[in-house]
Amino acid sequence: MKTPAKRRPRLLATLSALSGRGARASIESLSTLSRSQVLTWTERLNSVTHLLASLEYLARPKDREWGGANNWNVTRRMFHDRAPRFAKALDLVADPRVSTALHASRAAAAVALWLPLSPRQRVAVNTVLTGSQVALHAQNLYGSDGADQISFLVQALITVARTGHRRPAVADAALWFVSLQSVLSYTVSGWAKLPSDTWRSGRALPNIIRTHTYGDPDVWKLMRRFPRLTRLAAHGVLTFECAFPMVFAFRGRPAPYFLGIAGMFHITNARMMGLGRFFWAFAATYPAVLYTTGPRERTGPDDVVSRRDDALPANVTAAALTLLATGQVIRARRRRIVTRGRGDERTLTTAAGNTLAYRVLGGDAAANGPVVILESGLASTSEHWERIATQLARRFTTVTYQRAGYGRSRYQANGEYRFDTIVDDLTEMARHVAGDRPIVLVGHSLGGYLSLLAAERLGAQVRGIALIDSSHPAELQRSIRQAEGGRALTNALALMPASMELGLGSLLRRPEWVDRIPPEARTTALAQYRDAKLWAAARREWKVVKEEFEEFDGILPRITAPLVVITAGQTAATDAVQVDLHDEFAAAAPQAQQHLIEGADHDEILTHADRAAEVSKILTAFLDDLHDTPPDNGGWERSDRRQRNGGEK
Fold it and tell me: Domain HTTM-like: where (predicted)?
């Protein structure tokens, strides 16, 4: 008779927690549940997510019809292109009768988990839920969210735990995994928000609540009426999520408080933003969190004392430390590759104290012509220019260099970093490598605007400027797409340097542009891309560039030399404002050409073999035109060309 007496108060306490009464006491009572009871409550709470998801599916058949978000005739193309054999099985599941039957069985299985089933029956029901969710995933690509992801993870692990129910270590490993994933989800969410000025300033919540998808007009009005409380709420969310690992501190005493707040947070989101399934999906992880943060020994329903197996967290910790140590070794080796460079770099120490590494390409045949200086974009390595630099160097002296902090170049300037420092360094580099020879500046992305500013300072020595898919100082003010990209860049750059310092560079996906550049440059380029100093330099530059662009007064640098403006086709297709801004560059020059590289994106315009060849052809023709222009109109001596051609013969 002891068992019912013990189980009934816990069940009532749990129900009162779900109704919002006695949350702390109820959660604390859950922390003393046995392993079997924790598994039961985890699968029951998670089953509600499955039930709601299937009922939503069955209630919205229009989503699968023509024009619907999940019409299989459209979605199937993705799978048939990548895995034709696997896609045939998905075609079978996509049959309306089959998918409806699967959702009906999923809903029935979800309800069944609330019944007093035997262990084998629970294994069977959980297997049905896991298998059906896998089979149906392809039919619901659009509209699924984090709730579906966390519910599948929990469901798969509970199925594993139930399958190995006679091995407590397996069940405990599964519960530890669920617990750690829950803590990680909240923590990563908080730390990802932390670099965002929108979150730190308190603007994030009203910005979310005013949207059509997640908005609530009444709540938005309240937030506008009480801005201080709104800002306090935003800071509260940040603090709560970032501090979530504290659930493991002080023998788990803070865990009930954190989970109580988390539950109320999801209930609030369900009311304001319509994210009802998130409450049930994350609530399903709470029993595991309480189990792993609670006492290691506990008494089960039959007064049997069991001991929790903590091998998984110990192994995870050991693996994490090993990975971090390995990451540091790889980071040091990568840094050696970066500092070694390409082997033919020269260096210049600028007035600011920075040491810039540069390469001079082009033989004796190019000695009497112009010096072409290639200026890179933000967070870009000079290896981006490899294809174009190689082509131009056949006829012209061509210089590539790394800005301070990139590659072999070192940032050593004293005092506050200023935007003018970037331009000053480029100007000094141009004067150093060109001497008295004419200069042509070629800039990509941010490098385009930097080239315009440097040309203004260099004066008549600059005989031509080429802008390749260039940034414009008004883009953050006038282009929604660029403004959104700028905010995303701010957030990303806030995390990248520290992540690379921790040795996590190998986790960065190998970018496609690395495999598009010539093989001899790939090792160096990839090492630079995964180097912490590159990202620290990019963050330092972006801070001052962002300020410069946001305060732009509408007056472009004075352009006195002939100009060529080259725009990537995808830029033109996706951002009409950027096309207008490129037109403004051309309109500001005394002589201007404009070209569109069809199909090229912002990186491909330099790194793709065909796109780069097209750009090189345009630049070569532009340089030849400058040869035929008298020096006072931006060209250089015709004798230079005759001498060069004579040398080639």
Answer: 64-294
φ, ψ for residue 565, nearest 5 deg: -115, 120
Q: Is the separation of the CB atoms in 556 and 563 below 8 Å? A: no
Residue 566 to residues 92, 445, 467, 623, Cα–Cα distance (Å): 49, 11, 6, 14
Contact 626, 592 (CB under 8 A): no
Report the pLDDT value the prediction gives residue 354, as an integer from 0 to 100: 95
Query: Which DSSP letter does residue 307 get?
Result: E
For 164-226, where are the alpha helices, taking DSSP H only?
168-193, 197-200, 204-209, 217-225
Helix (H, G, I), strand (E, B) or coil at 398: strand
Q: Was domain 344-648 assigned CATH 3.40.50.2300?
A: no
CB neighbours of 354 closer than 8 A, spacing ≥ 6? Answer: 404, 409, 410, 411, 412, 413, 421, 425
For residue 301, name the pLDDT band (cuts at 50, 70, 90).
low
Predicted local distance difference test score (pLDDT) of residue 16: 42
Residue 81's Cβ-side half-sphere holds a number of Cα atoms within 13 Å equal to: 5
pLDDT of 74 > 90? The answer is no
SS3 state at 224: helix
How far CA 424 is from CA of 376, 451, 559, in Å, comes to 15, 11, 18
User: Helices 286-293 and 35-59 meet at what angle, rounded to 10?
Assistant: 160
Residue 126 tokens read as 């959980």
Q: What is the pLDDT of residue 141?
A: 63
Helix, strand, or coil (residue 309)? coil
DSSP string, 355-410: EEEEEEE--GGGTTSPEEEEE--TT--GGGGHHHHHHHTTTSEEEEE--TTSTT-B
Per-residue burial over 109-122, b if 16 or more Cβ lie within 10 Å, else e, is bbebbeeeeeeeeb
One-letter identity of residue 415: G
Nearest to 220 by CA among 236, 204, 235, 239: 204
d(CA 427, CA 549): 20
**pLDDT mean across residues, the chain:** 85
pLDDT, residue 621, reads: 95
Q: Based on the number of CB atoms within 10 Å of its own CB, is 637 exposed (0-12), middle (13-18) or buried (19 or more)?
A: middle
Least confident of 207-216, 398-407, 504-513, 586-595: 207-216
How far is the C-alpha of 300 from the C-alpha of 342, rounded, in Å? 66
Q: How many CA atoms lie within 13 A of 323 on its CB side?
A: 11
Span(s) in the chain for CATH 3.40.50.1820 = 344-648
Q: How far apart are alpha carbons 402 and 430 in whole angstroms?
A: 13
Backbone dihedral region of 113: left (phi > 0), alpha (psi from -120 to 50 degrees) or beta? Answer: alpha
Q: Render pLDDT for 357-366 as a digit per residue (tens, 0 to 9).
A: 999 998 766 6
pLDDT at 519 over 90: yes
In the numeric block, the tokens 């035109």 are attached to: 625
Q: Tell how strand 355-361 and strand 371-375 pair up.
A: unpaired
What angle (nearest 5°) sits at the alpha carbon of residue 499, between those of residues 340 and 417? 70
pLDDT tens string 118-171: 989 999 999 999 988 888 776 666 656 678 889 999 999 999 999 876 788 999
Contact 250, 243 (CB under 8 A): no
Tokens read off for 263: 């539950």
Contacts of 557 (CB under 8 A, 6+ apart): 452, 453, 455, 456
